Amino acid sequence: MAKLITVSNQKGGVGKTTTVNALASSLRYLGRRVLCIDFDPQGNLSFGFGAETESSASIYDVLRRELPARFAVQHTEVGDIIPANILLSGMEMEFTGRGREFLLRDAMRSVQELYDYILIDSPPGLGILTINAFAASDGMLLPLLPDIYSLQGIARICDSIERVRRTCNPKLRVLGVFMTQYNEKQSLSREVRATAEMIARDLRVPMLKSTVRKSASLPQMQAMQQDIIGSAPRAAVSLDYLRLTDELLEQGM
């Protein structure tokens, strides 16, 4: 039975999509069966996987119950994915009935036996899409940039997670907060990490030891729709994500 993991942050541009892509690649490199769910109407993860988004079934069709999730899976050279497109942005207005926060959870039941992990790339903000991702998940990963704005978002998203725990998913837990685009030589990176550790401790969520360095090659690999770990297993960013994956597995992800 697959564990469902959502990568989330209410702030955009912190590396959510990159983390889902790289974590999936790392887990496959270690022999795990992984499915990714693009749950962001922008469809950036779908593009990075080289998925077809216009004429093929998407997660939107699955949520509308037009077909089971397993029939929407695309097997690309990068990995397995259920893609998203701009139609997903209408979910807030279209799905208004009772139980709408459980649409994704219910849809995943037809594929959970086929994978070890299902990774969800959630959109920024806290609308019905993000609530669905939280309600469906076993664990949350929170990437954080080394800047003051990212720090401000930690408490807000942890408040949101706590509300979801109380209302619709008591099993949800935070697997950890971790730094992306981290530069040990820059004082700002070190200061933000130290502050993040204090905030995480106060909120009783784990601050992961692993950090991910900024990489000039990573955007190029995604633009060329390449498997991040498979195409450059010795690159610094690949080693960082492999270490992050090892740490999460050691903690029981």
Short description:
The chain has 11 helices and 8 strands.
What does this 3D model show about the protein?
- There is one protein chain.
- The chain is of the alpha/beta class and 253 residues long.
- Helices cover 42% and strands 17% of the residues.
- It contains 11 helices and 8 strands.
- It has helices at residues 16-29, 44-49, 59-63, 91-94, 103-107, 128-136, 148-167, 187-203, 218-223, 228-231, 236-250; strands at residues 3-7, 34-38, 74-75, 80-82, 117-121, 139-144, 173-182, 207-213.
- The protein has an 8-stranded mixed beta sheet, with helices on both faces.
- α1 (16-29) packs across α11.
- The longest helix has 20 residues, at 148-167.
- The chain is globular, with a radius of gyration of 17 Å.
- The two termini are 13 Å apart.
- The model has no long low-confidence stretch (mean pLDDT 90).
